[in-house]
Amino acid sequence: MTVNVGIPRALLYYEYYPLWNAFFENLGAKVVLSEKTNKKIFDDGIKNTVDEACIPIKLFHGHVMNIKDEVDYLFIPRIKSIAKDEYICPKFCGLPEMIKHAIKDLPTIISTEINLFKSTKGIKKTVCEVGKYFSDDEKNILSAYERAYYKYRNDKKAMQNKRNTENNKKIMIMGHPYHLYDVYLNMNTLEKFEAKEVDVVTPEMIDIKTINEYAKKFEGNLYWTFARKLIGTTMYLVDRKNVDGIIYISTFGCGVDSVVGDLVEKYIRRKSNIPFMLLTLDEHSGEAGINTRIEAFMDMVKWRDKFENNIPAHG
Ligand code: SF4
């Protein structure tokens, strides 16, 4: 009988789904995804999470509720670190407990710890711990992971090779992947820009090695993985000056962005004249407000072309 494993379409689903999906399928399991974010998922998440949680964590709860009755297992790893010498936001670490305490009648949760802080070699042990729910054969588990990782890496490279139209304005839209790619949460911000014949680029389209090289030049210790990626991206953009504007999407209650968003904005304003806008979303954000800000931003970007000195609106 096929075993169903549920993956909530939230948080690091937007980064690792191709890897997790291929791994579980290689082990003979059927992956069940929650629906795309919708009003019910959003409302269920808000109702079932502590008030002080950030929006993406609330959304995660809503996605768990959406699939919990359809699956044998829920995959909610306890993620501490996904890169050597770096930590991830602490909310990922407590996620299995948050879910268990907030939501009743759950299936078995696979909450294996992912902690690559000391060495990325630890991934083998982690993979075997997850895989043992589906196979007794360690070789089979490791082979399933290697094939899945190969596919994941190729998918990533394909994204980096995406070419833009050279004549259009180019706008970088940056932020955590679940802010950028959950279209319900961000009210289709990326598509709204594309509809204005703008080429949208995201951090995922830049070679991660390049981002890391730039991040190393930052004065200060970047011990958060999200910070390294976003600050490295910013330094790359400011150095290359190959975008016409930068949008940073954040959500209300994000502790990481309260520091990183500020650092990014100050760095851009100090070192370049690239127009910058911070879009902070919360459960009350209205689409009309987002549309107005996008319109105004694009008007300003186009307006600058008319003036030789190309001075941004913020001075
Ligand atoms: S990084 Fe920010 S948005 Fe993401 S889980 Fe942590 S607090 Fe929430």
From TrEMBL:
Residues 5-206 form the DUF2229 domain. Signal peptide: none annotated. InterPro entries: CoA_activase_DUF2229, Dehydratase_Activator_Redct. Keywords: Kinase, Transferase. It comes from the Bacteria. One of its GO terms (molecular function) is kinase activity. This is Putative nucleotide-binding protein (Sugar kinase/HSP70/actin superfamily). It comes from Marinisporobacter balticus.
